[in-house]
Amino acid sequence: MRILLVDDEADYVSTLAERLSFRGIDAQWALSGRQALKYLETEKYDLAVLDIKMPKIGGIELKKEIQKKYPNMKFIYLTGHGSEDDYQKGVADSVHYLIKPVNIDDLIKMMKKVMEGKD
To answer: pTM of the prediction?
Structure first.
């Protein structure tokens, strides 16, 4: 399973990628939506874990952009702002949503569930 983590908090996303790597999960990380889109030009990922609130291109908009080119890619949203506002912006249709700081075991369980197509 190849994962793309996208979050504008460098320490958080790099640590998350490292923790996933220790558990045998291949995780690349990007600090912005633009950087993520650039990686997707040359790399293939099974699943993207997207922070909802990022400058310029947030997770909800980024998901829409990625799906245009990769309609079969799977997604999980992460946010430090688990508010009703997030749901109104497009998260309500996604059952794949975790609040930061995320428990690594919960994230891995959700990643497996999403990849197996279980909701």
So the answer is: 0.89
